[in-house]
Amino acid sequence: MYAWRGLVGLVKPTYRAGSLERFIRLMPDGVGVIPRYVGVSAGTEREFQEALAVAEERVAELAKLKVDLVVIQGVPPIMLRGYNFDAEIRKSLEAKYGVSVLTATQTQVEALRALKIKRLVGITYFKDDLNPKFGKFFEDGGFEVAAMTGCVNVPFSDLGKIPAEEIYAQAKRVFLKVGGGDCIYLLGAGWDCLPAIEPLERDLGAAVVTNVTADVWATQKHLHMREPVKGFGRLLAEMP
Is the pLDDT of residue 219 over 90? Predict the structure, then answer.
């Protein structure tokens, strides 16, 4: 029987390959996944502002398919609306469509709190017109943000081609430059940063949190499962 432990609907911002496959492989056996897409392609603030209306349509579609949980992936559209907007949109969607909803912003904030993070160093692939707004989101959530810095200069469509070695090097450079912290936060699922997590945690003694690992952790928690996964950092290995 497929999906005997739960059926998850994913609302994904882009059509890019990578994060969907990662999410499915990291989830326990018996969990089914149905993806729907918003269609973000340029990664601009205007596009992110318009994305939530499309995301709501996808939530409605998934609710009709009787999923147990909808996870709205992609953090910029919600972060740009401010910290309090996160809870508001989840409450509104759950009441309107009768389905449990998680957002990627919620999963990451809860993951940071579960790991008892106080000071984080944020690394992104966005330009600095957006990064201060991302930083403010976490500050409003009660975290000290030592940095929220864009570290790559590649087209939005090519983020998946960034080597994990480069992500490691850039994250390490910024972390040491600002005097460290409890956590390195790698914003975004567009780059394949999972292979960099364990080396960063070992070398710098800080937890590493990113979209995919936070979504997997929170989905397991919501579906009342606990299957730790080794090789992708403390969050999934310890399942706090």
Answer: yes
Q: pTM here?
A: 0.94
CA distance 59 to 159: 26
CA atoms within 13 A on the CB side of 38: 26
Helix/strand/coil percentages in the chain, nearest 5:
50, 20, 35
Instruction: Please answer whether residues 74 and 12 qualify as being in contact, where contact means their C-beta atoms are separated by less than 8 angstroms.
Output: yes
User: What CA–CA distances, in Å, run from 36 to 29, 76, 218?
Assistant: 21, 18, 19
Alpha-carbon span 58 to 10, nearest angstrom? 9
Q: Which of 61, 71, 56, 81 is nearest to 26 (CA)?
A: 71
Number of H-type helices and E-type strands within the chain:
10, 8
The alpha helices in the chain, defined as continuous H runs, are: 19-26, 45-64, 76-79, 83-97, 104-114, 131-140, 164-177, 194-204, 211-222, 234-238
Q: Look-up: residue for tokens 């996808």? A: 58
